[in-house]
Amino acid sequence: MKRNFIKFTGIALVSTLAFTACAKEAVKEEPFLAILLAQAVKSAASGNCAISLNLGTLYNGAILQAAASTATTFTQAEFEQANGSTVTALGYASYAVTPYNLKYDAFIKGGGTYDATARTADIATAKATVDAGSLLGIAAATCSSVPAIGAGLQTVATNFLATFTTAEQTAINAIFVGAGTNTATITGAFAGGCGVIAGGLAAVYTAFGGSTATASLYQARQAYANGTGVLACARIPKSSCTFAAITTADRATAIANGVKANNLIANNPDCKKTDGDFINAVARAQFTGIPKNTTITGFTSRGDILTSPSDAFVAISEGSTASSNQIFSEYSYPSSSALTGLGTAFNVAFPLAEGTTAATASTINYYKASNINLTSVDNCEALGLGAYGPIPTPATTAATLAAKKPLTSTPEIVYAFSTENTAATLYATVNTIKAGAATLAVACNNSFRAKIALPLAIGGGKLPVLNDATSGDGATSSLLTACLYGGTATSRATASALLSTTSLAGIPHCPQAAAAGAAKFGDTGLQTLADFPNN
Questions:
Q1: Is the four-CA dihedral 153, 225, 62, 182 of positive or negative sign?
Q2: Distance, CA of 128 to CA of 349 (rounded, Å)
Q3: Alpha-carbon Rg of the chain, whole angstroms?
Q4: Is 253:337 a contact under the CB 8 Å cutoff?
Q5: Half-sphere exposure (CA, 13 Å, Cβ side) for 245?
Q6: Which of 90, 158, 468, 506 is the most buried (most CB within 10 A)?
Q7: pTM for the full predicted model
Q8: How do residues 209-261 score in pLDDT, each as one tens digit?
């Protein structure tokens, strides 16, 4: 399921709460065991889960993605050294059409003459390019909210430039010089106000991907430089509030999970297939990004799939960018599909890593720096976040009232994070592509809901039949509630703007009570949290 913020697989939840290993006879014969079992059941079903995400990971990921995907940075010669084979031998017409996942894996793995020193140099070049883009992004990010800022835009740019060291500013200027301009010209043009985007700097913006792309870089840099985190809370029992339960460990696991969902759809007669290509379409939707000539096994209703180009009938794409993929590069795991659901821009956050390792302290700068931590809490209300999501801000308009939903109940969470619901969601997606009636997806979802036996620890029984839900509970509830912490009030406002196009639009600053669930990180702005929600 891909809505709201964090994807919990549910496997750990169900297995932990089921207690199938305890025989009824043993409980009858030992009253004390029965008491212990009752306490264990109550404990396993209790508590909620707080998840902290370091938003600086968007900056880290942007740097690494720029390094791996820019042909003038990670060159074809470097790629071929790291991969151990030529582009031609790999079956690609040119380096330009070589898939992103293949480039990223080669970039991180290294090999031949492409060693750590060469990779560090490429990362430095990519960082300077991202930083230059972030300076340009000031205009779009600022003008969207203050269109009449005029010459004040130059002041904003000057203050932002001061957040970089002298060495970083020199590197930024070198990037601009390579693009036919320089930093002084850029900041000088900002004195003309918001019109520079389509005016005097139009060609420069085009060269850096456009105003929207540069605005995202600006906000990501701000989140990193000022230190901002998202604290989310969901009604996930503490027994499942673990890193392993909320992530997909590796590509093999992602593929295996995809096969399970595919089989569930194929073998469920209540999930009507509208044409002979339906299950192939399911595979195409599931496995975008998987390397060609990969054999996918384990299907129960069809033979193995040997991926494109060998199997032209199924024709699974290898993907072109990180944001276009469902299967990521091997070195991008552990991942979370719900972060992808929040917005494909969050794909750059992978791999996820716990702890407090700062971005520049990791073995490969910005790669596998700590970006997520989990904390078991009594309940989300104790953090001052209330019982509604996706944000706890009071509803004051028709739009915010429509977005305000109660937190998903534990029984619905069991289904939301099940393979059955993954299959229902996938069926609904493909059914829409095939222009099938929505009632088909509703029937498929209800069929899968009926197959879920709720653990006794959370009351047992069955989930209700829903008349209009094509997956899950039809989005009538919110999996989480969330707020911002770290840095300063100003930096959190910038982070809020970064999330304005996601389901967390309007996310507020965390209340003081939320300090009990918020985790520290090693990067600036999130190390002490001595004046929570400020650092």
A1: positive
A2: 19
A3: 25
A4: no
A5: 22
A6: 90
A7: 0.86
A8: 999 899 989 988 988 998 999 999 999 888 889 999 889 999 999 999 999 99
